[in-house]
Amino acid sequence: MIDAASVTTTVIDFPRMRAQRRGRLQEAMAAAGLDVLVLAGPSNQEYAGVSRAYADAMRVHHEPVVVIVPATGLVHAYTPFPEAAYDLPDEHVHRELLVEYPEGVEALARAVHEVVPEAHRIGIDELTSPMLGLLPDLLAGIELVDAGVATGPARLCKTADEVECLRVAQRINEIAMYDVEAVLRPGVRQNELSAVFLRRVFELGITWSCIDPIWNITPPSVTLQTPTTHGGVGFPLSSNDRFVREGDLVLPDTGIVWNGYHSDFGKTWICSVDPRPSPELRDCYRRWRDVIETAYAAIKPGRTCGDVVRDVMAVEPIFGFPHFYLAHGAGCDSAEMPFLGSELGFEIEDTIELQPGMTFVLEPMIWHEGHGGYRSEEVVHVTADGCERLSTYGYTPFE
Amino acid sequence: MVGMAEAAEGRVMLTPNLGTGAQEERDRVSFTELRAARRARAFAEMERLDLDALVLGREANVRYVAGSRRLWTASSRPFGPTAVAVRSTGRVHLMTFSASLEGAPAEVPLGDVFCTSFNVGTLLGSLGSIDGLRAARRVGVDGFTLFMRDLLPTVVPSAEIVGVEPELRALRRVKLPDEIVALRIAAAIAEAALVAAADRVRPGVTEKDLQAAYLERMCVLGTSQFSQQGTFTVVDPPGRLRLVTSGRLLDEGDLVALAGGVLWAGYEGTLARTWRCGNRSEPTAGQRSLHRRWRDVSDAVVAACRPGATGADLVAAHEIAGEPLPRMPIVYSIGLGHEGPIAGSSHGVDLDRQQVLEPGMVVAVRTFVAGAAGGVLGEDMVLVGAGDPERLTTLGHGPLER
Q1: What is the pLDDT of residue B23?
Q2: Does B228 score more than 80 pLDDT?
Q3: Where are the domains of chain B?
């Protein structure tokens, strides 16, 4: 077997990682008073150790996967991909339930009753149309709550193996971006950049691609862009076959999934036969550096998400797009809790204390109207006394 | 829906000039007309179902009703309001992640576009400002979460909220003429990508390399969006199909399943072939025999794809050919992605019997045969017309067919 493990010397113990995640899920279920979890969301299923053959853009491309997690005992998987239901004995791996149809929802209710006959409180992450109408009757007498009360706390802090998965994912993403940066020349099209990227990341053994690679061509002024709802900079814009031309400011944003874990790569590039940032853009980069160094210094166990945002705001009161944030969590979803500097506000973010194992993607952006801006994303994880960067890529042509 | 009458009027080109870019002499697809036609059908369906509003989150429905192209993501996308259609005003409102009007169709004005928000208050404010929504008595949704179950009633306080994905799926299954053209183009892209993967089949190449070749070619052809990223796996004797593409090296004599799906303008092109790896030797008698069995059962099922046939009839055609059903549906509907199984689902004959083919439907016919020599997977897109079914994918089968 040749796979992406060859790009790193990191040793990840996958069975240990899955066992620890299932343990955390069950601890969180106990704390939330749940008897059982019914999971339809791919990232929650991944966390419970049940993966899929491929990422699905349409939600129901092939028959959906359903995972039932009892508060005690082994997970049951109902899946068209039995080979991706890990560590489970055959009698826990069943054929798929067609939960997009009434027949499938009835079968799901029977399965829940069989797996946990005495269930009083069930967490569910996603409902299909037939579930909406049928489940209240089929599960009469059982309280249905959002699965997030358990999956959220369980997934908040990563194990050492999970952090290493994120490191490998980020490394693969970066290796592919070296190839992309090399072909970013006037006249290349966005779809050609995607071709270079996707070919390389799959050759390096990624599991899924989960987001259309973004090559955001960003005009120097908001008056030159397609209108936005808030009048600020529009981001991220979907890619197409558009030419990238001399002088274009390109804000790439790409991500891949390696064994369930999402990378996140953002940068600011200039497309030119001789890329040279203007003094104003260099200034944006310098200010961006101040912000990111401030954030690195601020991230420590014991401080809150709100504390980090305040430290950054003391340096730059406006640190990003109007509809974005300073940072989001990263793990089995490309953006997950907790958020920093988001629309949730200090009221929420002051209540979330940083803990070792939390992982973030910091993505500040400094804008100088009329000249463009600088944005880069940095993946970090919280350590015992600070944070460590998982991103390693440089800052051409700004360094 | 689509037929020779429209073709004769020039509505559908009998010899379609398929391609992904525009040329001045003809529109391949008139997207303005297509959006208007889809939207008209959606509003008619709202009327039929007595729905005052639709609150949609799924990619296919958002594309169908709103015609918007949002940032493509796969896997993690729980239900969230993305397009809202209000019957009393005839307007469609969009939620966008980018805050930009890019990707929104020209007929949706800036005032009807909102930026997605994590903040419940902001989200409710946006939904609450939509003309006519608050008065809705019946609201259809295409998916849900328990979070939205608690939230949406505050926006539509007197409404009954009902799940309508099955009805929307049924609506999408029967295609408009321009949708068929889009699907033909998607089929051509999928074939080109599959050829790129097939051309890379040789000893020493990994399964992932084939996937990489497929996706690279797809992107070069102008779309970086796939419907699902496919299966590229060696099928070992006695023929167990692995769906997870791995880093395994291909070897001389291997049978390699190649399957993938692309999207063009949201429409899916999908097909599968099985290639033989190696240049030192010819396919074995056993491998050729597997391919002949696949050809026989595939032809039988495709031939049965006629108006009025049910999923149960298609399963019967498979059985008459003497092949056991694989552990996957053998026929499913495709359009703006997967539109549900038609034959061979895990819930058996009762569900299959409810699925009835109509002219204008496009289905994928997927079969897998196994034996001592390994296994052969193949899939084609088939257009159900008034008469004989038409294979929209026409790619050959390479070494196994020699």
Answers
A1: 67
A2: yes
A3: 4-171, 174-401
**What residues does each domain of chain A span?**
4-155, 160-389
Average pLDDT over residues B8-16: 50
Q: What is the pTM of this model?
A: 0.95
Cβ contact, residue pair A229, B212, below 8 Å: no
CATH 3.90.230.10 fits A160-389, yes or no: yes
Select A4-155's CATH number: 3.10.250.10, 1.10.10.60, 3.40.350.10, 3.40.50.2000.
3.40.350.10
Nearest to A81 among B169, B222, B244 (CB): B244
- ipTM rounded to 2 decimals: 0.94
pLDDT confidence tier of residue A241, bands split at 50, 70 and 90: very high
Chain A nearest-CA distance from B9, in A, is: 32
Candidates B115, B164, B347; nearest CB to A230:
B115
- Fold topology of B4-171: Creatine Amidinohydrolase; Chain A, domain 1 (3.40.350)
Residue of B nearest to A78 (CA): B346
Q: What CA–CA distance (Å, rounded) separates B212 from B229?
A: 10
Looking at the complex, report in whole angstroms how far the Cα of residue B66 sits from the nearest Cα belonging to chain A.
16
Chain B residues touching A192 at Cβ < 8 A: 219-220
CATH topology of domain B174-401: Creatine Amidinohydrolase (3.90.230)
Q: Does the beta-carbon distance from B224 to A96 stay under 8 Å?
A: no
Q: What are φ and ψ of residue B64, in 5° steps?
A: -65, -50
Tell me whether residue A260 is exposed, middle or buried, using C-beta atoms within 10 angstroms of its C-beta: 0 to 12, 13 to 18, 19 or more: buried
Q: Do B224 and A194 count as a contact with CB atoms less than 8 A apart? A: yes
> ∠ at Cα B67 (B64, B72), nearest 5°?
90
C-alpha triplet A47, A52, A54: angle, nearest 5°? 125
Nearest to A43 among B76, B79, B213 (CB): B76
